Structure formats: C-alpha cells, structure tokens
Amino acid sequence: MTDTQPASPAPQSGGGSSPSLENLLHETRTFPPSEEFAAQANATAELYEAARADRLAFWAEQANTLLTWRTPFTETLDWSDAPVARWFADGSLNAAYNAVDRHVEAGHGDRVAFHFEGEPGDTRTITYADLQREVSKAANALTELGVRTGDRVVVYMPMLIESVVAMLACARIGAPHSVVFGGFSADALRSRIADAEAKLVITADGGYRKGAPSALKPAVDEALAGEGAESVEKVLVVRRTEQEVAWTEGRDVWWHDVVDGASDQHEPVWVEAEHPLFILYTSGTTGKPKGILHTTGGYLTQAAYTHRNVFDLKPESDVYWCSADIGWVTGHSYIVYGPLTNGATQVLYEGTPDTPHKGRWWELVEKYKVSIFYTAPTAIRACMKWGDDIPAGFDLSSLRLLGSVGEPINPEAWMWYREHIGGGTAPIVDTWWQTETGAIMISPLPGVTATKPGSAQVPLPGISADVVDDEANAVPNGSGGYLVLSEPWPSMLRGIWGDLERYKETYWSRYEGLYFAGDGAKKDDDGDIWLLGRVDDVMNVSGHRLSTTEIESALVSNDIVAEAAVVGAADETTGQAVVAFVILRGEHADRAATDDGAAEVQTELRNHVAKEIGPIAKPKRILVVPELPKTRSGKIMRRLLRDIAEDRQVGDATTLADSSVMDKIAAGLKAPS
Ligand code: WT7
C-alpha cells in the first residue's frame, strides 16, 4: 500500500461516469426476471444451494459435466501449497479437443462456429468441422516449425479466424500461448516476448482498422531487432491486408505456405489438468507487466460454467457475440475457451464500431440475428453519445441477453443499454472479474437474480467473495471496503510467470489467507456488491488496465522529461482518462512556457508514450508543472493531482513535505502564458 491510498476506501474517480457512493445510494430500481426468461433459463436457484452444500463437489460436477476428460480426475482441489492451487490435478485433457473436436464427434460438425466479418465487409463462415481441420493443420505446422509441448508462443494478431486457430493450435500441442494485444507497441511486444522467452511469434501483415489497413509485422520486426528477444526462432505471418512486408529469410514463414498444405489429421497432446494453457500480461502497480499464468482443467471448467450460466447459452439456437479483442482476457475466456467449449455459434468482428458508420455493430446484430451480446461500458457510453436514433434504425429484436464487463457501469448507461439495445426486456448481466480470476466471479444469474442498474451484485455459485475493512472484517450491509475472494476457485491464476514471490506479495500479503483484488466495493442494504473502481495505482481506461508507474517510466525515458506523475481522472466516455503532470528539463521548461511550445511538447510526449507502450496509453492531457506534490518519504501524492485533473478543490495537503507545492502548481496552470 502506498501513501496515496485513501484512508477509507473510495473510488479512484470521484464523479464523471464511475458510480460514486453518493449516487449509488439513490439507486433503488430493480428488474426481476420475466417468467418466460426464468422458465427457460439454464441457471436456477438450486445452483446456489448445491454450491453451498458442498463447494468442491459442486466444482467437480461442473468439471465432469461440462468437459471431456481423457483421464478422469480423482482429487478436486489440492490447496496444500497455497496460494498456488491445483485443481483436478490427476486428470488429463486437451483444451482444443474440448473446444472443437468433441462437438464434431457428437455430430455437430456442420454447426457454425464463427460468422467472421472483416471491417471492409468481407465475410467468412466457419463450422466446427472446418475449425477442427484448420486447428489440426496449424498444430501440425507449429510442430514442423519446431514448437514442442511447453514452448511459449506469442500471438500478435488482429481479430481474425486465424487468431483463434493459432491459440487453439497452441493449446492442441500443449504450447502455452501469450497473446499480445495488437495495439501494443514494438517495445511492449519485445518485453513480453523476452519475459516469456517465446520460441515463435504468430502475426499478420496487418489488419483493417477505421477504414484502412494497419500494419502489424513492422512492430514484430522492430521488437525482434532489439535486445532480449533472442529466444524467437520463427515468425509465422498470416496474409490479411497484402501490405508490403519486410522479410527475414530463414526466420519468417507465411501461414499459407506452411498451414494450408499441412495434414488436417492431428492427435491432440493430452496434458495434465495443471499444464499451462496461457500467459497473459497485465499491468500492475509497478512498471513491469505481470505474466498471469492460467492452466488447463480448472480454467476451462470455470470458463465453460460461467459462459453457460451467466449468458444462458443455448448452443443450438443462440448467436453469441462478444465484442472484446482476443488480446484481452475477455477474448480468451468469452470468445475462445468458454463459448467454443460450450459449442456456441459466434460473431467475430475485425474492426471498430463506427466504421464505416456508427451503426455498424447494430447492423451486424440484425444481419446475424445476434441473441447474446457482451461488451464494455465505455462502448455503451460512446453509443449513447452517438444518439438513440442509430440503434433505432436496426432490428435488434433477436437480442435476449446483454452483458457488461471491464469497469463499473453507471446506472444511466445500464438503463440506456436496456432500453435502446435490449428492447426494455433483455436481462443485463454486469460481470465482475479480472485477468487474474480467469473467468466471471460476481454477476447476477439471468432468470434468477432481480437485477439492479450499476451493481454486479452476487458471487456466482461456487465463488466466495466479500467486502472487508482494513482489518479483514467483513463490512456490514450499507458499508464500503475492499473486495476480497476468500476461497480458491478453479480458474484462478496459478502465479505470475517466473515470479512466484511477486504473486504472493501482490495478491496474498495484504490480508492473511484472502485474495486481494485491488478494487474498492460496497455492500448495499440487501448485501449486493457494488464495485467502485481500483484502490491502487492502476487506472481503467475504456475497460483496459493501465499502470500509472508504467506510463510515468515511459515519460521519464524521454530526454526532455525530468519527472512525471500520472493519474486517472474521471472521464465521461472512457471511465478514466490518463492525465500526466511533467517537470521538464532545463531549456525545455522555457520552451513549454508559450502556448505553441506547450502544444509541441504535449504532442511529442504523447507520441513517445504511444511508441513505448501503445496508443491506448497516450495521456489525454499533459500538464507541465514546476514541482510535484510529495510526502516526506518522497511518495507522490496522486490524490492531490487527481483533484486538479478533475477540477476539484484540492484536498488535505498537510502531509506534504512542502505544503506550498500545490499553490505553485495551481499558479503555474492558471498563469497566462
Ligand atoms: C479490473 C480487471 C475482466 C475482463 C476485463 C478487465 C475492473 C472488470 C468490472 C465490472 C466493475 C470491473 C476491476 C477489475 N472491472 N469488470 N463488471 N464492474 N469493475 O480485465 O484488465 O484484468 O481488469 O477491471 O477494477 O479489477 P482486467
């Protein structure tokens, strides 16, 4: 915990779009499930009963009914090496077999797995039988390229069918994948490749974004040219945009050259339940991203269980669409592993929601008759801003269930989603979880829970979550505190890649025996949980996690910057926005004293952050200041900077080493240039 920690838990952003304690106390609307929905729902109240009666037996039952095991397990949970759990450890299985082959074997080979829609409007339909052939071919190709069970493969791709095939091919041979979001920079890619010591990188020439081809391969070339990426032997490149690409002979290989001609017969590698399935990097409170490790059996069990019950999936009739990118955990669990394990038919869309027009998503819902839609509050707020008439121009009557994830959804956005997208009837599931939890943890169950706009409400059957105070006491209803998870769960992370100590320190040292999630939360009078945002130095911008420290390091790595402090400020659309305070070196400070100079410095630094981390991390505002507010121990008091960034009266500054600093900062910002 840092000095910037609020004494009593409070949301990071004081107003704007995140729900504050204040307005949540006034939220009293509830929406009980309709009788028709409840009558057909997968989930029933008995799930809670069963899980409460015998939690481990409950999970064993889920694992046995939702997955196909090669060797059955006999032990459900081994927690003797806590906080590293082992679930179903003596069983063996294969994730790709569960996601694909067994559906074909069960006679569903003709069922559509994906309706792919490229941003330019090109389409491709792929059935489960097609997917089985593609994944088998790719698995053979990976083996041919020297990838062995246990080797790490980095996937740096746009949203294509091949991206899913690449992930499943890795799973099929037991080579853990590490997907790096295509919006990350070459530097960010290199550090992830280096940390995972990846042997192979799978990428594409580029993808379509906002109406134009956007290159990816050059970033891979740049990443591999730098130090630390020596482990990479081959680069497998999918042709998508047909842009010119630089080619390194002996290293680079076209996907169509090695995959298309490979045999479509492949025996999956049966792995132990605890075999690593993937590593996914996420930002923490320090500059170095954490490689979150997930294993096979437990992860797949909870991904499938939550997808079936929270989204009420009926594989024969539903068309499910999750708008996330596969570069984030939502894409892993709710595009690849959960839905495919359940045999779902999905929409996979390559591009942005406003290309070529702001109704593109709703056009796709109409076209494919999407019945279940899962997206993030930031996207909902953007659509709200674009106007009600846009979704009103499409037939959205196929939608019967809506989901939200990534950040607290403010009640206004929730109500808009319900009215304008869900036709006033579709239940909304607000799902709380994290990269670390692997799958949904807190959410209403559709057909069972009466929903409340803005609240994720209740831990799922089988999950134990609570809100506690500083001393780990559960807070009474009506009070706030910190969200903790009190029992191990199947899809929990098994550690941070290569750094077990950091795993223990980050999640398990704050409270004895409890997993500390890093979120503030409140229990209302009914005991329902309301998430209030991060309580650590992690920001949430458009549902993406960004570390203040990481952006500060990026800024300071620029020659003109002497010191930097970054805060997340409440933002109407993105939830939080990155605001940076920088002290410039010598003559650059003078340069920034004029309006033109300041604008120039801002552009320079914003581009620098985009290059170091990626465009998503670009500060929205950069304020040049003479000093930063620090405590006597030298910690930056971000709370005070947040007050400035959110145009609030600056709070209590008495613990500052130099109490005049805030006046100097304020004077500088107001001074005419
Ligand atoms: C953090 C995890 C889980 C996939 C997307 C983000 C915030 C996530 C909710 C929600 C309130 C939420 C939390 C959490 N968060 N879902 N429904 N309500 N906050 O994954 O990048 O690992 O971020 O996102 O702050 O700790 P992630």
From TrEMBL:
Q: Which cofactor does it need?
A: Mg(2+)
Domain annotation AMP-dependent synthetase/ligase: ranges: 106-497
- Select a single GO molecular function from the record's annotations and give it: acetate-CoA ligase activity
Q: What's the stated role of this polypeptide?
A: Catalyzes the conversion of acetate into acetyl-CoA (AcCoA), an essential intermediate at the junction of anabolic and catabolic pathways. AcsA undergoes a two-step reaction. In the first half reaction, AcsA combines acetate with ATP to form acetyl-adenylate (AcAMP) intermediate. In the second half reaction, it can then transfer the acetyl group from AcAMP to the sulfhydryl group of CoA, forming the product AcCoA.
Keywords associated with the record: Acetylation, ATP-binding, Ligase, Magnesium, Metal-binding, Nucleotide-binding
The record ties this protein, via InterPro entries, to:
Ac_CoA_lig (IPR011904), ACAS_N (IPR032387), AMP-bd_C (IPR025110), AMP-bd_C_sf (IPR045851), AMP-binding_CS (IPR020845), AMP-dep_synth/lig_dom (IPR000873), ANL_N_sf (IPR042099)
Which intervals hold domain AMP-binding enzyme C-terminal? 550-635
Q: PTM details? A: Acetylated. Deacetylation by the SIR2-homolog deacetylase activates the enzyme.
- Domain annotation Acetyl-coenzyme A synthetase N-terminal: ranges: 45-99
Residue numbers binding Mg(2+): 556, 561
Reaction(s) the record says it catalyses:
acetate + ATP + CoA = acetyl-CoA + AMP + diphosphate
Annotated binding of CoA, by residue: 209-212, 330, 542
Q: Which residues carry this modification: N6-acetyllysine?
A: 635
The family assignment reads: Belongs to the ATP-dependent AMP-binding enzyme family.
Summarize where ATP binds, as residue positions: 406-408, 430-435, 519, 534, 545
Q: Where is this region: Disordered?
A: 1-23
CDD domains from the xrefs? ACS (cd05966)
Return the protein name.
Answer: Acetyl-coenzyme A synthetase
Provide the species name: Myceligenerans pegani
Record EC number: 6.2.1.1
Q: What class of enzyme is it?
A: ligase
Bias class Low complexity marks the residues at 1-12
